[in-house]
Amino acid sequence: MSVSAEPTSVEPRRHGSAPADTRPARTDTLRPHAEHAFADELAALAAQDDRPRPARWRLSPWAVATYLLGGTLPDGTVITPKYVGPRRVVEVAVTTLATDRALLLLGVPGTAKTWVSEHLAAAVSGDSTLLVQGTAGTPEEAIRYGWNYARLLAHGPSRDALVPSPVMRAMAEGRTARVEELTRIPADVQDSLITMLSEKTLPIPELGQEVQAVRGFNLIATANDRDRGVNELSSALRRRFNTVVLPLPETPEAEVDIVTRRVAQIGRSLDLPAVPDGVDEIRRVVTVFRELRDGVTADGRTKLKSPSGTLSTAEAISVVTGGLALAAHFGDGVLRAGDVAAGVLGAVVRDPGADRVVWQEYLETVVRERDGWSDFYRACREAGA
C-alpha cells in the first residue's frame, strides 16, 4: 500500500514540519533559523525570480546560488553573502539538489558545511528545520520513524501511533531534509538511508504500507573525516550522494572576511561592539591559526609544528566572539590582544602535553620576534602560555 501522494500521511505534524511562512519569527530568538533571519532577502529574490523552478522549490537554482553568494538585484536590493568561497562549489551543490541525487557536503571542521546546508534548505524549501543531528547515539528511528508507545500499547500499530522522522516528513511533503555529521552516526544506522535515496521510498512493514517521496524531496548531509569517532560511509551509501568538498579559505584576506562577517552577525544578536573596532585583532587570530594549521609561517621562511586541533575558521569566529564579549563587559568595548589571548590558547592547546610545547615554541620563535606583536606576545604569556 502506497501513501506517496498524501502529505497528511505523516500527520500529526511535529515542530519544524509546517511551511515556513505559517510560523512567525520571534524577535527575541537567540539564533533565528535562516528562513526567518533572511526572510526579506528570500522574499525579494522570489519576487524578482523569473527563471524556471524545480517542483516545490521556492526559488530557481540561479536565485538559490545568488542567495548564498550574494549580489544586487535589479531593483537595488542587496543580497548579503552567506558563503565566501568558490562560486562553482555552490553551483554544483545547487545543481545536485535539482536532480534526484542527494548532496554530501564534505570538508574539515570549520568549512561552513552546516551553515551552507541550512541556507540551501531555507532557499530551496523555505524550511531548514527538517534536521537529524548525527551523534554516536543516533538511533535508526531518528532517520526512519518511531512510535508513540502509549498509543502503540493501547491500540496496536497504526498511523496515529507512528512518529515520523524529519526525513520521512521531507519525503511526504517534497521538502529538503538535512543530516548533520553523517559520519558520526553508526554505520548500520547510516545505511537505513540507502533505500530512501535509491528507491525514493520508506517501507513501513508494521503497517504493510510505504511512504514514497514526492517531487521536491532531497537530502543534504554533512560529514568530515578529521575528528575522532568517525564512521566511514559504506560504498553503497556513498554512491547515493554527489559529494561536494568545501575547501578552507584560500587566502588570509578571505578568512578574515569570513570571520568578520560572522562575528558581526553574532555580535548584533548579543549587543556586542562593532567588528571594525577589532579588525587588527581578527587578522592576528587568523594569522596564528593559519600558520599553525599549515605548519609554516606566512612568509614561508620558518617551518612549524602543528597542534592536534583543527584551528578552523569556525574556531577563529568563536575566539573573536568571546574576545568581543570580554571587551564589552570587562573592557572599553574595543577588541584588544588581551581579549583574544585566552581564547587562542584554549583553541591551540587541546592536548596539554604535546600542544603546549608546540604553542610555546611558536610563541617564542615567531610571535616574540614579529614587529608590532609585542602586545599579543605579552597577553599570551599572561594568559598562561
TrEMBL record:
Entry protein name: ATPase
Stretch list, region Disordered: 1-34
Pfam families: AAA_5 (PF07728)
Residues annotated as domain ATPase dynein-related AAA: 103-241
InterPro entries: ATPase_dyneun-rel_AAA, CbbQ/NirQ/NorQ/GpvN, P-loop_NTPase
Biased composition annotated in UniProt, kind: Basic and acidic residues: 23-34
